[in-house]
Design a protein that fits this description.
Largest sheet: 6 strands, mixed
Bound molecules: 1-deoxynojirimycin
Radius of gyration: 26 Å
Helix content: 25-40%
Number of helices: 23
Number of strands: 31
């Protein structure tokens, strides 16, 4: 790639901007080479075999004598869905002491938003717009998970998601590749710490490579039909950020892009990821995805599927049992596969070596550490801080929030209010319902002067298993059933109150894997409840609990105040109470747009202008739905505060910048209220005229700033033209092209609340080797009188 760019440079005299991507892959170490040289073909294949030691919600349940024998015979390289220092220590002992070559095992699990101390779900954490916080939560997850013996997590999920019908939006950082890339880096750093060999560090997995969030129709596992530009500009950048951050592993995605499943995609995995990006970590398939190549219709037999995955660069077979059954035969039939097998084994052994497993195989499986590490007061405190910082105030007409002292009778209405299970979110590792501090007791504690009543409002009923995920988990979702008695009691409670807290949204199991829905509004039972409660005329604060954007136009219209609380983890209740009572001003911002209707998905604020940009005026024919306004229900970056902020003095360090230069953007933000609060200062850009049409807005910087009453701060961002480059796939395999011309700069409180604008000019053309949205914008703040 770099060589090609240099040749192009010589021909076109463009400036090449930015360093080459990651350093060239290291040679395998002496130890790894020695080991490889001593391995039989079967032992090599065994290293590529990842076996479930249990199920996600029944860890270790498949660990039996037969599994241990397979370890002894060197047939297993890794287990997933296992945990517990004692169990893992024993498994590791069998591998290290009783197998011929003593190669230690990798132990993986989906430790996604906490291990025992459950933090807010990833989409919620993304709403904090706080990379340092996100890094800390990942660090704590690593400390706890490694104390239980794990050395590998299948996280972060870095899939960009613009379709809220897709249930897995809950697992990622939302719709924006810039925010997504920054939070990817934060998570990888948190999981892996300063050295992977540290026994509190866990191997991070950037997943699912790539385009998984672009599933057509928002249907999980479905095809992604994405243009080359969108792939490079939107879906790939967070993976590039993961490579740069040193993520030890990547997981290929279930989906295909234009008919080529990522489980067997040499161009993207070997060509781009391994080749151009020099990625030398471990690449694992998703669950059972190698056998599923037959379903995709790109392999006629299991043997062909195994060969295709290996050719495609997949090192380890997660739960497919296919490499172990078929690779030997495939290699006998086609010896050209042997070097690829060796490369895959090297990747596995190198990951084990980087984790220090050859030297300290039991370092992470220490029962004493395990007993002391979980859910400590410090971890709980961080969970509360993370939960508070993830809450987004969507609406607050008449400053209904925070709750005033005169509100003596408060009615909490809606069954989600007492659903501590939902607070844990979709991946809960070892999170337990009994560790959750729910809303109602937290409110009673925070508001001792008030009488707090509770009414369920409808009947939540356990549903039959409606889906089985790729990990073999049955659904737990509930049906919400209207119940005249429950509804009447809720209305009665509302009438008897000074203030209603109406808790609605989705049960946790409606989002997550295999949880795609065409209807992303409230259930009929909740709709009826909301209408009846609003009809009482009492002041109503809606508290949303949900894992995806919801299409709730009527509720948004009628309710004076709406607080988005997602699924916030073990400190859910106290954190929501902190915000409701005004102990903390909400500072979260939406990392994903909320549509007005089911049919308005997918959507993004970063759309192209088109030849007929959407206009309010229905007389004109423009790019819009005729039955909906042109705006989202709640915009990307939106979030209110109890404070008010004033933006001023947007200034640039200069008005012109060469392709290889940089430019500083400064703005003053003042808290003009009497309330201490955080503001998230957001920087957007637009290239108004280029060789290709560019999005109307793109996030390129943000900073969450704490301001006491009256305080002002100068916030500075340093931008480089490479961050304005667009993907040009027409030349020489593709390049990032910087084009001379004007760039519009917008700074404000959300994508829909731009306060200041200016323009600068890029004075020369150039090329860059790095995806524009994977380049972090440096920012700084300093007090202003
Ligand atoms: C399937 C999911 O797609 C993936 O994200 C997860 O890591 C594996 N199952 C293992 O649980």
């Amino acid at each position: 790639m770099l060589r090609r760019i240099l040749v192009a440079l010589a021909c076109l005299s463009l400036s090449v901007v930015g360093a080459a991507v990651a350093q060239p892959a290291e040679q395998p170490s002496q130890r790894v080479r020695d080991l490889l040289g001593r391995m039989t073909l079967d032992e090599k294949i065994g290293q590529l075999n990842q076996v479930p030691g249990g199920r996600q919600r029944a860890l270790n349940s498949r660990l039996d004598a037969a599994a241990l024998d397979r370890v002894r015979r060197g047939e297993i390289g890794s287990f997933l869905h296992v945990a517990g220092a004692a169990q893992i220590r024993e498994l590791q002992r069998v591998a290290v002491v009783e197998s011929r070559l003593g190669v230690p095992l990798l132990f993986g699990m989906d430790v996604v938003h906490g291990y025992k101390t459950m933090f807010p779900v990833p989409l919620a954490l993304a709403a904090s717009w706080d990379p340092a916080l996100v890094e800390q939560t990942a660090r704590v997850a690593a400390v706890e998970a490694t104390a239980a013996g794990l050395n590998w997590t299948f996280s972060p999920m870095v899939d960009i998601a613009r379709d809220p019908r897709w249930g897995r939006v809950v697992e990622g950082a939302g719709e924006d590749p810039y925010l997504g890339s920054i939070l990817t880096t934060a998570q990888v750093r948190g999981y892996q710490g300063s050295s992977l060999a540290d026994t509190t560090s866990i191997l991070a997995t950037a997943k699912h490579f790539v385009g998984y969030g672009a599933a057509v129709g928002g249907r999980d596992y479905d095809s992604a039909d994405i243009t080359d530009r969108t792939l490079h500009e939107v879906y790939l950048p967070p993976f590039h950020a993961a490579v740069q951050a040193g993520a030890g592993s990547m997981m290929t995605a279930f989906n295909d892009i234009a008919g080529v499943p990522l489980t067997a995609h040499p161009a993207l995995v070997r060509g781009l990821l391994r080749g151009e990006w020099n990625y030398d970590g471990l690449i694992v398939s998703d669950w059972n995805a190698i056998p599923e190549l037959l379903n995709h219709g790109v392999a006629a037999t299991p043997r062909e599927a195994g060969a295709a995955a290996l050719r495609g660069g997949v090192d380890m077979d997660m739960a497919g049992n296919l490499y172990s059954a078929e690779l030997k035969g495939a290699i006998e039939a086609d010896p050209a596969l042997l070097p690829m097998l060796d490369e895959a084994v090297i990747a596995v052994l190198t990951a084990k070596e980087r984790l220090g497993l050859f030297d300290t195989p039991y370092g992470r499986a220490d029962p004493a550490r395990e007993a002391a590490a979980m859910l400590t007061p410090e971890h709980r405190a961080l969970a509360r801080e993370a939960a508070r910082r993830s809450i987004v105030l969507l609406k607050n007409d008449g400053d209904l929030l925070p709750i005033v002292a005169s509100a003596r009778r408060i009615a909490v209405i809606g069954a989600l209010a007492e659903d501590a299970n939902s607070s844990l979110g979709s991946w809960r590792a070892q999170g337990k319902v009994e560790d959750v501090r729910p809303l109602i007791p937290a409110l009673r504690e925070a508001l001792p002067q008030a009488t707090i009543t509770y009414a369920q409002g409808y009947r939540p009923e356990a549903a039959q298993a409606i889906a089985v995920t790729a990990s073999g988990e049955g659904a737990q979702a509930v049906h919400e059933v209207s119940d005249a008695e429950a509804l009447a009691a809720a209305v009665e409670a509302a009438r008897a109150s000074d203030l209603v807290l109406l808790v609605v949204g989705e049960h946790f199991d409606r989002s997550g894997e295999a949880r795609s829905y065409t209807d992303i509004g409230l259930s009929a039972a909740q709709d009826a409840l909301a209408a009846a409660v609003l009809d009482t005329g009492k002041p109503v604060v809606v508290i949303l609990m949900n894992g995806r954007p919801l299409a709730i136009p009527e509720l948004a219209e009628r309710a004076p105040a709406i607080l988005e609380t997602w699924f916030l983890g073990v400190e859910s209740g106290p954190a929501i109470a902190d915000v409701l009572t005004g102990r903390v001003s909400p500072g979260g911002r939406l990392p994903i747009s909320f549509p007005r209707a089911n049919g308005a998905a997918p959507l993004t604020y970063a759309h192209l202008p088109t030849g007929r940009p959407a206009a309010e005026d229905l007389v004109r024919d423009t790019a819009r739905y005729r039955d909906q306004p042109i705006t989202p229900l709640f915009a990307f970056g939106h979030g209110l505060s109890y404070a008010r902020f004033q933006y001023s003095d947007l200034l640039l360090s200069q008005t012109e910048v060469a392709a290889d230069g940089q430019i500083e953007v400064g703005v003053t933000v003042r808290n003009t209220s009497a309330i201490p609060a955080d503001e998230v200062v957001q920087l957007y850009v637009r290239d108004p005229v280029a060789a290709v049409s560019r999005p109307v807005q793109e996030l390129r910087g943000f900073r969450r700033v704490a301001l006491v009453p009256g305080q002002a701060k100068r916030v500075r961002f340093t931008l480089t033209p490479a961050q304005l480059a667009y993907w040009d796939g027409t030349v020489d395999g593709g390049r990032w092209r910087i084009q001379a011309g004007d760039i519009q700069v917008m700074v404000g409180a959300s994508s829909a609340d731009i306060r200041e604008r200016t323009t600068f000019t890029i004075t020369s053309d150039g090329v860059s080797a790095i995806p524009a949205t994977a380049i972090p914008t440096q920012s700084a703040e300093e007090p202003r009188p």
